[in-house]
Amino acid sequence: MKTFIEVRGARQNNLKNIDVNIPRDKLTVITGVSGSGKSSLAFDVIYGEGQRRFLDSLSTYAKSRMSQVKKPEVDFVFGLSPVIAIEQKKGILNPRSTVGTMTDIYDFLRLLFASAGEASCPLCDHPIPVRSSLQMIEHIQKLPEGTELEVLAPVYKLYGETYETTFDEIRAKGFRTLHIDGVRTNLTDHVELEEETDCRIDIVVDKVIVKPDIYKVLTKTIENSLSLVGEGFIRFEIVSVPDGAVFDKEKFYRQFACPEHHLTMGELQPHYFSFNDSDSACRTCGGLGTFMRAEARFLVRDRNKSLLAGAIEPKLLSTGTKGTWIWGLVKSMAKHYGFDLTVPLDDMPEPVQEMLFYGTKGEKFPFIPDESSGKSQHRHAGKLMTFAGFVHIINWWYKLFLKRQGSQGEADFYKKVMIEHTCPDCEGKKLRPQRLCVRVGGTDIHQMSVMPLSELKLFLEHLTFSDTKANVGGQITKEILTRLDLLLDIGLHYLSLGRRSDTISGGEAQRIRLSTQISSGLMGMLYVLDEPSIGLHARDSGRMINTLKKLRDLGNTIIVVEHDIDTILSADHIIEIGPGPGREGGGLIAEGKAEQLAASPESVTGAFLSGARMIGVPAERRPLTGKVIQIRGARANNLQRVDVDIPLGVLACITGVSGSGKSTLVNEVMCKQLFSIFHDARIKPGEHDSLTGHEHLTGIITIDQSPIGRSTRSNPATYVGLFDRIRELYAEAAAAAGSRLSKNDFSFNQKNGGRCENCQGEGIVVTQLQFMPDVEAICPVCKGTRFTDEVLEIKLKDKHIAEVLDMSIEEAVVFFEGQTYVQHKLKVLHQLGLGYLRLGQSSTTLSGGEAQRIKLAYELGKLKRGSHNLYVLDEPTTGLHHSDIQKLVDCLQQLVDAGHSVLVIEHHLDLIKVADYVIDMGPDGGSNGGQVVAAGTPEEVAGAERSLTGKFLAKLLAPQERSGAAQAGLLIH
């Protein structure tokens, strides 16, 4: 049996024909500077070849139905196992995906509720039994023969709709007879109910007489009651019993239904608790938990104009269509309540404005058509009407839009005038209210979903079941607890099953996927991971390392692409790729144990392991300016009414363990509030009392790790804005050479210009094959240059534009010497450690860290005097080697020196220790976090007893560097 994975002749991307042996059943770390070729070796070569061979083993039919993997540029790879890649990707963007659905724990939870759930009456909360159809029929057949009973099913009015809408739905299902508050009603007659009142409605599904051959009829009736209507509840109401029959009505309902309302629950199924099932999801939000609602302020075009002059959104009240039904209602209201439509909206009395936007709230007024009204409106003259209000009209239109899936133009309109709120019907619980009448241990499924995982584990451990349900309930609970233990071991105790996947970080998503792999219990596998330490506090990195070792000890081979020193020191084998980035990298620099790398003079990582190189602490820190962003009463997510002052004019760090509330405070509360002030009032920030200090800022700029472009045509040169100037230079050279080529002809995006139309400026031609990978071939016309021969004849310093796009940023700095604008932009990119990237490199090939640094370079390249922006970065050290972190620090300091403020959410201690001010959140994650436990200079935080960050920070700061203030104690907010 092979003891190594042998890679021979790896030439993928910038790898330089390297040979490497990776020990099997060991934890191997591949490290090196950013852009050195680590991911090319781990993912493109090893994972790519393993995946390709697996797909090759499938049938042609199977291969034709899945995307194929291209063969990597490598001579051969021996000793491969079935391979699984756990990459550093942002959480799933589908708003329906949650931590529970990602880990399959929610599916087990649904199974638990379906198997061991106890129901209660939706009207009075009295416990009621769950019965199968057979059990119901057997109980009914105990009634005296000839007993007449009605089978009824409760129905519920749709939120925000009229009773008539509910009646229309009932008619559509083929039912006509109802009980409304106990009164028998026929829907063939006109039924009018007060919309504000809450009526109890039961459909009469069938009327049956008890007799020996009733089984088939009653089975069909019960199925209709439970599936078509009733929301899983059914009611049997005895109408009459035969004369002389001995019958105890109370005994019939005892232990069979709610003693007061006579409701019984049908047999439960797992899908009954799925918010992704249309029959179980909240009917208002469709199981999302959020709903778009109109805002009055966004419906106003100009408050200084009158309604007749166009104060309101034209889609509602267009000045050119004054004969519409809405205009008729508004004019009738104006005549009845005595307000003037020619008065500016701002000058109208407050009650009138309230009525226009939110309606008459049931109060009626006569409809009075005028000369602009159509014939249909005149037919309603004198009829008493109510007005829903502009806000409710938009909400109603939006519901219709969702039902018929309207055009993109309509969608854009609703985005403009509506804001996402918690669903007013289910209050964010995603399920229909009747589903929450089923509980396990007195707790419904939503309550379990919002518990932190650590709390959920304790709850399930102490859960007891009745004798009849103990066996099945115990088995399901055991499965859930096994999976919860894995998530807790990996440091995700603060998450909840209901947490949306699009709100978790890439590191959290990667650790969740890692836990699911461990739960599989497979051995002999090959796992390839991309920086699993990302997003982890120093306290939690040990948990991650232990998890990797546990996976290894099961008999698996673990390959980790990583920069984290603790992970490198814990590895069984280390491989360093380098020595530099891009074309300077791709070589095998050093391999072996940590001690061997530390002793290697060529190893950049080894220099940091041995202490020969390190990121130094500044000799002095900037003094505070006195200007702050003051946040008071922040209580979004787990924040516990946080009061905090974020200093401006300095480099500040927000720190804390995972789940302590850092991202909530910065991104959800501060950033969204500032964005709503500076950019878009429709943005809804997290709950807080107040935010002041924004007057000190010109704007807010967030620099995240999202791609700089989703098109293959997007590249660093176009993003930072220097490609336009390069094209101008070539256009000037063309004019000097007597050519008629313009600036547009030097773009590969312009049709009918200078680009090659055979490949449409892509440089490659893709041939799609049915059950084989797509074949990419260099365009035979332009030979991969992307431009026509005429364009390529124009040269600057003997280089045509395709050769310039193929240059590295480092080479381009020298090439464009003398071109101040272009060289300035290039130098900023080079300064950030991106000199290895090509100017025309597709944005789809860039990592999240590279994209973030390009965005930072864009901001650094356009600094203006006199402005004061707040730059917010979320873990900018992601994907950075220690040698590159120093370059990042220098650039952040440059932003502050230019008169701006920088706020960084960070775990990396080397960046935290160089900050001017640190705010540490905690003391722990989840419900035990959400507080500011320390604030001050890094030295002051290092001396704080409650600060977990401080304990690790103290190890990096030499005692003589700590201030007397830190030794004396720390001001804790």
What is shown here, in short?
With 973 residues, the protein is of the alpha/beta class. The chain is built from 34 helices and 34 strands.
Would you write up a description of this structure?
The chain has 973 residues and is α/β, with parallel strands linked by helices. The protein contains 34 helices and 34 strands. A 7-stranded mixed β-sheet has the order 8-14-13-9-12-10-11. Strands 5-20-21-3-22-23 form a 6-stranded mixed β-sheet, with helices on both faces. Helix 30 links the parallel strand 31 and strand 32 (901-905). Residues 624-954 form the ABC transporter domain. One of its GO terms (biological process) is nucleotide-excision repair. This is UvrABC system protein A.
List keywords for this structure.
973 residues; alpha/beta; Rossmann fold; Ribulose 1,5 Bisphosphate Carboxylase/Oxygenase; Helicase, Ruva Protein, domain 3; 5 domains; 7-stranded mixed β-sheet; 6-stranded mixed β-sheet; globular; AAA+_ATPase; zinc-finger
Helix and strand arrangement:
Blueprint: E1 4-10, E2 18-23, E3 27-31, H1 38-56, H2 60-63, E4 76-78, E5 83-86, H3 99-103, H4 105-116, E6 118-120, E7 127-128, E8 130-131, H5 133-140, E9 148-155, H6 163-172, E10 177-180, E11 183-186, E12 201-209, H7 215-227, E13 233-240, H8 249-253, E14 263-266, E15 290-294, H9 325-337, H10 350-358, E16 365-366, H11 375-378, E17 384-385, H12 390-404, H13 408-417, E18 418-422, E19 438-439, H14 445-450, H15 453-461, H16 470-489, H17 506-520, E20 526-530, H18 541-553, E21 557-561, H19 565-570, E22 573-578, E23 587-592, H20 594-599, H21 604-610, E24 628-634, E25 642-647, E26 651-656, H22 662-678, E27 690-692, E28 699-703, H23 716-720, H24 723-736, E29 764-767, E30 775-778, H25 789-792, H26 801-805, H27 809-815, H28 820-831, H29 848-860, E31 869-874, H30 882-897, E32 901-905, H31 909-912, E33 917-922, E34 931-936, H32 938-942, H33 948-956, H34 964-968
Parallel strand pairs: 3-21, 3-22, 5-20, 8-14, 20-21, 26-32, 26-33, 28-31, 31-32
Antiparallel strand pairs: 1-2, 1-4, 6-7, 6-19, 9-12, 9-13, 10-11, 10-12, 13-14, 15-18, 16-17, 22-23, 24-25, 24-27, 29-30, 33-34
Helix pairs in contact: 4-16, 15-16, 16-17, 17-18, 27-28
